[in-house]
Amino acid sequence: MKWFLVLLLLSTTVGHAQHQKKTVPLIDASVIKVDSLLWDLKALSKSPAVEWLNQTGPVRSLLYKGVDYEGKPTQVFAYYSNPDLIRGKPVGKRTYPGVVLIHGGGGKAFKEWVEKWAADGYAAIAMDLAGKGSDGQRLAQAGPDQGDVDKFSKLEKADLRDMWTFHAVSSAILAHSLLLSFPEVDATKTAVTGISWGGYLTCLVASLDNRFKAAAPVYGCGFYNESDIFKKPIGQLSAGSQRKWMKFFDPSTYLPYAQPQFLFVNGNTDRFYNVVPYHKTYSLIAPARRTMCLIPDMKHGHEAGWVPHEIRYFFESVLNERVPLVQVSPVSVQDSTLRLSYQSPVSVLSAEFYYSNDTTSLNEQRVWSKQKGIVDPKNRTISSTRPKEGFKYGFFYLKDHRNVGVSSTFLIK
């Protein structure tokens, strides 16, 4: 009988950290100076109730309580793992940084994304934002789906708190609160990254949840009414609903109050998140708290969006005080020379200047040219001759000897 009790005790304490939750820090909503804040950040700061679906294997699955939808309770499906679990070990006493992973349009909770970050040393959680489970079927207590109706057109008649963005932001913040409750997660070292629509959500979530120390939105940005793609569904709303959507659901409303360090990752020819609204979005974050990574001809997709290792290097530099990414100054134009200065403990390997005079094509069809940048390691500058034909859009892209890339901001003439 005694041995049975010992085994029972071990089975409830060794298996997983959900039995040993700790106090979760609160979001400081006082710094978000908007006239009508839609989200109850105090409530979202609390760790949600959890139903564990799978407590074995390297990646665990669960349902956690979401916010009510159309007056009814909801649950959100998610995957979770950490460096101990991914190696098949019980959760030990060591703590790890945490990361919240937010999928994009048409996506789901990606198990392999959680595996990647757990293998890289993080406690990682990825949630489904379409009211679905691991099998792709609607949950019994599902929130809104992720189609255009729930994102846009329903706004004409629906309550703001029944819109997809309200629920997606709430679910991501609740996932963070859950992560922070685990004893193996260092509550002072958490980050968030999301892809496409998940990048859009990352801008919102990182602005509202100042418990995060770092954020890496991939592709996604604000100023949706200026997007080559999203200005269309917004434009189909009535004038009043357009104003309401931009006021409550566009990241431009909240980014001025964001507290984390940001890494902005995008391509120069992205179909959904084009140059001008992207430039306006990152400009809302002070230069001292942002790093740019404009990757030439970057493809759009979930896998393409989680591949850049710059995201991990950036998180490591912020959360674990590792070697930072190259820091670059604004580009100056002096006579016929474009020049920027940089700071980096790692030598810069290469640099190029990309530019375009194509002002008539859609963003993904815009034609770009490139020319070599000259790296001066002694003076820590990078320069390139101003193109003879001039340019409307331009940026420097450089890599250090770790093969880690960063860029300047866009130059827009």
Could you report the average pLDDT, rounded to the nearest whole number?
95
The strand line-up of the biggest sheet is 1-2-3-5-4-6-7-8-9
- Write the CATH architecture name of the largest domain: 3-Layer(aba) Sandwich
Helix content estimate: 10-25%
How many strands, which pairing sense, and closed or not: the largest β-sheet? 9 strands, mixed
The CATH H-level superfamily of the largest domain is Alpha/Beta hydrolase fold, catalytic domain
Q: State the name of the first-level CATH class of the largest domain.
A: Alpha Beta
Q: Which residues form runs of ≥5 with pLDDT under 50?
A: 1-19
Domain Acetyl xylan esterase: 92-219
Protein name: Alpha/beta fold hydrolase
Signal peptide: 1-17
Pfam family, one: AXE1
In words, what does this structure look like?
- By secondary structure, the chain is of the alpha+beta class.
- The protein folds into two domains: 2-322, Rossmann fold, CATH 3.40.50.1820; 328-412, Immunoglobulin-like (Sandwich).
- The protein has helices at residues 2-13, 41-44, 83-86, 111-119, 148-151, 164-181, 197-208, 231-235, 239-249, 275-282, 302-306, 310-319; strands at 50-54, 60-65, 75-81, 96-102, 123-127, 185-195, 214-218, 261-267, 290-295, 327-328, 332-334, 337-343, 348-356, 369-372, 374-376, 381-385, 393-400, 405-407, 411-412.
- Helix 6 (164-181) crosses helix 7.
- The chain is globular, with a radius of gyration of 22 Å.
- The N and C termini lie far apart (79 Å).
- The relative contact order is 0.10.
